[in-house]
Amino acid sequence: MINIIILVGESASGKSTIEKSLVRNHGFHKIISYTSRPARSGEVDGIDYHFISKEKFEELQSKNFFSEVGNYRGWFYGSSVEDCKKDDVVAVLTPHGFRQMKKYGTLNIFSFYINIDRRDRMIKILERGDDIEECYRRSLSDVGQFDGLSDEVDFVINNDGYRWSADRIAEYIIQAIDIKNGGC
After folding, report:
1. In the predicted structure, residue 143 carries a pLDDT above the cut 70
2. pTM (2 d.p.)
3. Nearest 5°: phi and psi at 5?
4. Pairing of strands 155-158, 75-80
5. Sign (positive/negative) of CA torsion 8, 70, 17, 121?
6. Lowest mean pLDDT among 22-26, 109-113, 131-135
7. Hey, which of 14, 88, 179, 181 has its CA 20 to 30 A from 108?
8. Would you say residue 77 lies in a domain?
């Protein structure tokens, strides 16, 4: 049985949209990460993230509550071990988070690297309405993080030009897992 699908990819590769398709169309459950950052406008505790204080995060981390943790711009992020051990869950992670979770050992992980050409991703970021500085910052933050990742994941999905929709990629993911599990 599937424990967890992990989606990894650079900024604007479509990971979150694929995650939503797996939840909506295939009965998966999104792993809701914990974070020490404050909620942004429109975010809901328990739906977007579990918002907790930095002190509470550190306390939980000291009790091995998390299967992976990250620090971004001074805020902590992490996925609980308990959530990762449930069946049919999906998570969007950074390469660092994926590598941590992979080392955890007791999780049945199916990992997918969503690979899209840098130029296509930058255009998508700008089309979404992010300003040019944000586009540049996001692109720079990805540099080096994904080196060698294609050799570490179970599957690489090359989607240059966004030729496959998120729903089609979700279908592919389900088929790939079935084949890897010995199905047809």
Report:
1. no
2. 0.87
3. -100, 130
4. unpaired
5. negative
6. 131-135
7. 14
8. no
**Residue type for position 101:** M
* Average pLDDT of the segment spanning 120-144: 70
Tell me the Cα Rg of the chain: 16
**pLDDT tier, 142 (very low <50, low <70, confident <90, very high otherwise):** low
Q: Do the domain assignments include residue 16? A: yes
Q: If you average pLDDT over every residue of the chain, what do you get? A: 88
In a domain, 39, yes or no: no
Question: How many CB atoms sit inside 10 A of residue 115's CB?
Answer: 19
Question: Quick check: is 10 in a domain?
Answer: yes
In total, how many domains does the chain have?
1
Is residue 28 within 8 Å of residue 176, measured between CB atoms?
A: no
Task: Measure the CA angle with vertex 29, ends 25 and 34; round to 5°.
Answer: 140
**Residue 127's domain is classified under what CATH number?**
3.40.50.300
Q: Residue 127, class by beta-carbon neighbours within 10 Å (0-12 exposed, 13-18 middle, 19+ buried)?
A: exposed
